[in-house]
Amino acid sequence: MTWNDRLAEEDDPVVAWAIGDFKACVDAWSQAALSRPRTAAKTVRRSWRLVAAWALGCAVAAASAGGAWYEHRRQLEQARIAAARAAAQAAAQAAAQEKLSAGPSSARETDQDLLAAVDNDISRAVPAAMEPLAQMMDSSQADGNGTKSNKKK
Amino acid sequence: MQPMSAGAAKEIAAQDFSCVVESHRPQIFRFLLASLRDIDLAETLTQECFLKAHRNWSRFRGDSSPMTWLMRIAINLQKDHWRNRRLQFWRTTRANVVDLDEAGEWLPSGERSAEQRLLAREQVAQVWKVVGGLSERQRTVFLLRFVEEQELSEIARVTGLSEGTVKAHLSRALGKVRAELRGKR
């Protein structure tokens, strides 16, 4: 006598039938699941996708490498410019220092040289026709100076 | 009698094991399917069960029947699966689980009227619902008793419980089935 028979006799036939049907259901389901045809989906490798993926990967890698190289070059250039600027500033400072250490006498000499150069530039030779007039002006200036000095006396 | 070579012994063991697989695979699969209601998962665990058995086949001493041994492995695998599921609660592993109504549709029609078939299908759906709501241990005991039709002593050996505990679990599970069926009657 099976458990279900005992259950049907002792307890409740409805429960026994329901459990018997449940067992039949599980049996049928498992048999159907075991005997079902197995389908293995073939994985189709799409070549264009592979190529696109590789191309994208290469592009990303090249862009990364190029970016890194460009950044490196830019930093080197900036460092070179900064070094040149610092050298120019240092040279300018050294020149100014030298000028200060040379003192005022040299400045004065420089002024006299400048005035002499200007004098040379603006002085013109008097034409021969105007020579007497020039002499007259010189003499009158000399007289004027003499009278003034006499008057003062 | 000539001594058997190691290769021949291995071949005989392999043949024995393939016989065991042939004869017990449907039962192991049926138990796991009823317990998990997931065909793919039941197949996977059945494969794992036989893989484990194959690895340990040389250590099987024959103290119990191969069926008891295999069922014990299947129950342990199922336990591991539920444990991992609890840990990986964010995963939607129940996606493949068959709906209760769908599971009840596998009832063979037999020589019944349409009304009887409908009633039987309803009752089977109720039993599926109760089984789904049982604790892991109660469900295992219930399925071993009423689907695999094992004796209480065999269930006790498979589950590692005492016969008294098996009876108690079975009684509670039956009580729930009875309550569900009476509630709908």
Short précis:
The complex is a heterodimer of chains A (153) and B (185). Chain A is mostly helical and 153 residues long.
From the N-terminal CA to the C-terminal CA of chain B, the straight-line distance is: 68 Å
For the sheet with most strands of chain B, the description reads:
none
Count of helices of chain A?
A: 5
Helical residue percent band of chain A: over 70%
Task: Please state the CA-atom Rg of chain B, rounded to the nearest Å.
Answer: 19 Å
Give the SSE string of chain A. HHHHH
Structural class of chain A: mainly alpha
Largest interface in this structure: A-B, 25 and 30 residues
Helical amount of chain B: over 70%
Q: What is the molecular shape of chain A?
A: rod-shaped
Round the Cα radius of gyration of chain A to an integer and report it.
58 Å
Q: Topology as H/E string of chain B?
A: HHHHHHHH
Structural class of chain B: mainly alpha
Largest sheet of chain A: none
* Overall pLDDT metric of chain A: 80
- The CATH C-level class name of the largest domain in chain B: Mainly Alpha
> What is the architecture of the largest domain in chain B at the second tier of CATH?
Orthogonal Bundle
Give the helices and strands, then pairings:
The complex is a heterodimer of chains A (153) and B (185).
Chain A: H1 3-10, H2 13-35, H3 47-102, H4 104-122, H5 131-152
Helix pairs in contact in A: 1-2
Chain B: H1 6-36, H2 39-55, H3 66-87, H4 100-104, H5 114-133, H6 136-146, H7 152-159, H8 163-184
Note down, in words, how this protein is organized:
The complex is a heterodimer of chains A (153) and B (185). Chain A is an all-alpha fold. Helix content of chain A is 84%, strand content 0%. Chain A is built from five helices and no strands. In chain A, helix 1 (3-10) packs antiparallel against helix 2 (13-35). The longest helix of chain A is centred in the middle third of the chain and has 56 residues, at 47-102. By secondary structure, chain B is mainly alpha-helical. The A-B interface holds A 2-4, 7, 11-12, 14-15, 17-19, 21-34 and B 25-26, 29-30, 33-34, 39, 42-43, 103-104, 106-108, 120, 123-124, 126-128, 131, 145-147, 149, 174, 177-178, 181, 185.
